[in-house]
Amino acid sequence: MLLKLSAVLKTFALLLAIKVFPVAADDQPLPVSPQRFFMGIYYPSIANLVTRADFQVAINVWLEEFSDPLQLTPTRAILFENMDSLKQAFVAGELDFIMAPPLLLAKHIDRSLLADGFVGTASDGTEYGMVLIARRDAGVQTLAQMRGKVLMLPKNDLLAATFMDMLSLKTFRQHFRKVFKEIHTKKRESAVVLALFFKQADVGLSNAEVFNLMVELNPQLQQSLAVLAKFPTKSPNYGYFHSDFPVHVRQAITEKVKELNQQPRPQQVLQALRMVSLVPNAVDNLTVFDRLLDEYRSLETGIKP
Fold first, then answer.
1. In terms of CB atoms within 10 Å, which end of the chain has fewer, N or C?
2. Could you tell me if 151 and 203 are in contact, meaning their C-beta atoms sit under 8 angstroms apart?
3. What value, to the nearest 5°, has the Cα angle with vertex 143 and ends 137 and 144?
4. How far apart are CA 243 and CA 114, in angstroms?
5. Which residue has the higher pLDDT, 74 or 277?
6. 84 backbone dihedrals φ, ψ, rounded to 5°
7. Cα angle 155-160-165, degrees, rounded to a multiple of 5
8. pLDDT tens figures, 174-222
9. Residue 148 above 90 pLDDT?
């Protein structure tokens, strides 16, 4: 099962590239004058799916197929290990497109620097996001029953930590680190789910995509684990153009994205993972994460760390 899951998750990493960097259509290229196109990608958010080397190869292949018909040159896809470096390069105008988890974008990137971009969606309209799961035999059927249990978190995941802390502040008026008996982390979200399945923890947070995929591959997980809370998002990573990137080039890319949704070859790959659409991603879609941060800060007011 683990080998099969690894193969599917690795394929999904290629999908991330497809989501943001579509394949060129077979018809005549749109009339775009030569234009630099540099992309900055926050790598830790996809590191649990594929190695850096494999992802770099995949992203370069898709970028080449996408950029040639639109005469985008030179082009680069740059992977960043931390948000500060990615922000610095984007603010300095060294990047034309940015891809990162939406909560990080909402927290770190000035909204005036962003222009509408793209995000991948599921064919059935299912939202992605974060899920709080618990072992059915651990006596945790409600949030109030989490006290004194063992928590497993994905490592270096701001949305997971913020969502967990907000739920804890709402339920116990305490930060989650004071609520649980033990707190552990796993590099891969799939490992969080397996830790609960094998009774190494009582409660955990996982990306909804990963959890749903694992349940599909192993129905025993659904019998053993229950979802206590959700925070839906459109995708684990949101993509946006820099506001200084020429409008006419953005429009040309938008047309190519529309064509991608009708092309047989990419559709076969996307449909295998129940994700078939590239859709416009408005800057306003970050508002829900602004509200999450505002609510969290409000709950935190007056509570001792």
1. C
2. yes
3. 95
4. 5
5. 74
6. -60, -45
7. 115
8. 999 999 999 999 988 889 999 999 999 999 999 888 888 889 889 899 8
9. yes
E-assigned strands of the chain? 35-42, 72-80, 97-100, 114-122, 128-135, 150-154, 182-186, 203-207, 225-233, 238-242, 275-281
Calculate the dihedral angle through the C-alpha atoms of 258, 261, 266, 268, rounding to the nearest 10 degrees. Answer: 180
- At 245, give phi and psi (nearest 5°): -70, 130
- Written as one letter, the residue type at 279 is V
pLDDT digits (tens, 9 = 90+) for 20-32: 443 333 344 444 5
Tell me which of 3.40.50.2300, 1.10.260.40, 3.40.190.10, 3.30.43.10 is the CATH number of domain 128-233: 3.40.190.10
- Tokens at 118, concatenated: 């793209």
CA distance 53 to 175: 37
Structure tokens at 131: 């899920």
Beta strand 72-80 with 35-42 is parallel
CATH 3.40.190.10 in the chain, residue ranges: 2-123+235-292, 128-233
Which CATH architecture fits 2-123+235-292? 3-Layer(aba) Sandwich (3.40)
Looking at residue 153, its amino acid is: L
Taking only the tens place, the pLDDT of each residue in 239-272 is: 999 999 999 998 888 777 777 667 665 555 445 4
CA–CA distance, 66 with 37 (Å, rounded to integer) = 11
By the 8 A CB rule, do 118 and 239 touch?
Answer: yes
Mean pLDDT of 95-100: 94
DSSP 3-state of 180: coil
pTM assigned to the model: 0.81
Nearest to 114 by CA among 294, 279, 240: 240
- Could you give the maximum distance between any two Cα atoms of the chain, in Å? 63
